[in-house]
Every structure is written in structure tokens, then in C-alpha cells.
From TrEMBL:
Residues 1-208 form the Flavodoxin-like fold domain. This is NAD(P)H-dependent oxidoreductase. Keywords: Oxidoreductase. The keyword Oxidoreductase applies. InterPro entries: Flavodoxin_fold, Flavoprotein-like_sf, NAD(P)H_dehydrogenase_qn.
Length: 237
């Protein structure tokens, strides 16, 4: 399979970068093709703006998604976006590898999402969730964070990690049609021992080697909704 690792960490020696390297080595060792988009190393521009289009369908008023839709058809989107989009369309599995920043993704990765998940290709009209433009591809979110695992979950001080990842897992990856695998999380990374970090690397490697057995998370399917996207069946009270 073709694998794209989208990596967002400013320090090449970071533990998050070690997870990236391990994923690349492990998957290549299994005979998969791996590409890495190292966003900081590439100095990726994370700002969606009018400069992303060499010509505009509407030069007077920027509607970014509409310009994406027209621009991608006409070959008018910025070269760095087109390059990333080509990698994305090539991939069967996309791994998003990053440290949690403010209950979310680093701005660098958010910018990659804003610019590369191009309207008209990845989603648009009623092409979302299981009908999204990236249906058939898998997504794995691999993240590091500072908090301890007992601080996350129902009733815990920060609440469930799934809640803070919702904009990414549901609002982005499931929305564009990807099959979203359960995230891999390395907790409390800066504060644990070297050995404990090595344990995370070992469990990540085992997880990657058994990826075929992973059961994807569940998200809405358009067949469960009517033409106006009202649910066909109300959930049981
Ligand atoms: C802006 C910002 C917002 C944040 N928001 C949150 C938040 O909302 N919630 C939260 O919980 N945390 C948050 N954090 C903390 C952040 O998520 C963690 O600091 C980060 O995930 C730790 O991972 P790292 O790769 O940066 O670790 P690093 O600090 O790079 O590495 C930790 C240690 O691992 C060592 N290491 C490197 N490679 C290896 C290896 N192969 N084997 C063993 N050890 C190795 C490094 O030398 C270092 O000593 C935030 C941090 C920032 C900067």
C-alpha cells in the first residue's frame, strides 16, 4: 500500500519525530511505499489566502472553497498545494503525526488541512462522510501529549480525548470520506523515563504491524439521512 505521513513537529530530534521515523521504517519493512511530508522542514505555508490561486474565478471577492473548486479543475492552485494533493490522492493510508497543541493540532497541520483538502476533490456538494472524495483511504492519527492518561476520559479533568479530537477525526477525516482508525496516543511524553518512551515506540510498532486488524471508528452514513439531511430515524430515547 501507499502511505503518506504528514508530520508536524518543529524539532527533528523530538519524540514525535522518532514516531514518524519508526512508522516509515516499519511500513517500508513490510513492503509498503512511504512518503513523508515534514511540514516544518518543508517550511510549508499554512495560511490559506488569495495567493493560493494564480488566477481567480471571482477576482473581486474571495470565496476560498469556490476558488479551490475552480482552481483545481483549471490547474490554477498553488504548486505546493497541488504537490501535497497529489501525494494525498496517491496514498491508501495517511498518518497524521503531531504533538497535541491546545487540545488540537499545531497550526502548521491545521494549515495543511485548510489548503490541501481541496473542495471539489476531497468534498463538495453532498460528497461527504461515506460519500466523501477520499472514500477508500484510511487515516491514522498518531499524537504525543503532555497530560497523563488519567486526566482524559469521561469525568476526568480534561474530558474525553475523543472530544478534543472531534474536529479532526469527524469534522475533517471522516467528513472527507476516510476510514478513521483509532488514534495512537503517547501520554505524558516529556516527563516519563527514556524506557517508558521506548515502550511507546514498541507498542506503536506492534500497532503498525497489525494495522489490518484495526476496526475503524463509526461515523454517519448519508443513507441514514433524507434529501435535506434530516435523520431518517430518530435515535431511541
Ligand atoms: C503550544 C503547545 C500547546 C500544548 N498543548 C497541550 C495540550 O493541550 N494538552 C497536552 O496534554 N499537552 C500539550 N502540550 C504539550 C505537548 O503536547 C508535548 O510537549 C508534546 O506532545 C511532547 O512530545 P514531543 O515530541 O514534543 O517531545 P520532546 O520534548 O521532543 O521529547 C521528549 C523527550 O523524549 C526524548 N526522545 C526523543 N527521541 C526519543 C526516542 N527515540 N526514545 C526515547 N526518548 C526519545 C527527547 O530527547 C526528550 O527528552 C502543548 C505544547 C505546546 C508547545
Amino acid at each position: 500500500m501507499n502511505v503518506l505521513i504528514v508530520h508536524a513537529h518543529p524539532e527533528p530530534q523530538s519524540f514525535t519525530s522518532a514516531l514518524r521515523d519508526l512508522a516509515a521504517e516499519t511500513l517500508q519493512g513490510q513492503g509498503h511505499q512511504v512518503l513523508v511530508s515534514d511540514l516544518y522542514a518543508m517550511k510549508f505555508n499554512p495560511v490559506a489566502s488569495a495567493e493560493d490561486f494564480s488566477e481567480r474565478a471571482n477576482p473581486d471577492y474571495l470565496v476560498y472553497a469556490l476558488e479551490q473548486r475552480e482552481g483545481v479543475k483549471a490547474g490554477r492552485i498553488a504548486a505546493d498545494i497541488q504537490t501535497e494533493l497529489d501525494k494525498l490522492l496517491w496514498a491508501d493510508l495517511v498518518i497524521f503525526n503531531f504533538p497535541l497543541y491546545w487540545f488540537s493540532v499545531p497550526a502548521m497541520l491545521k494549515g495543511w488541512i485548510d489548503r490541501v483538502l481541496v473542495s471539489g476533490v476531497c468534498y463538495g456538494g453532498k460528497r461527504f462522510y461515506d460519500q466523501g472524495g477520499l472514500a477508500g483511504k484510511k487515516a491514522l492519527v498518531t499524537l504525543t501529549l503532555g497530560g497523563r492518561d488519567h486526566m482524559f476520559g469521561e469525568g476526568a479533568i480534561h474530558g474525553p480525548l475523543e472530544d478534543m479530537l472531534r474536529p479532526l477525526l469527524r469534522g475533517t477525516l471522516a467528513y472527507v470520506g476516510m476510514e478513521v482508525l483509532p488514534p495512537f496516543v503517547a501520554w505524558h511524553v516529556p516527563y516519563i523515563s527514556y524506557e517508558a518512551r521506548q515502550d511507546f515506540l514498541r507498542s506503536y510498532q506492534a500497532r503498525l504491524q497489525g494495522l489490518e486488524q484495526d476496526v475503524a471508528l463509526e461515523f454517519p452514513r448519508l443513507e441514514q439521512f433524507d434529501e435535506r439531511l434530516y435523520p431518517l430515524q430518530r435515535p431511541a430515547q
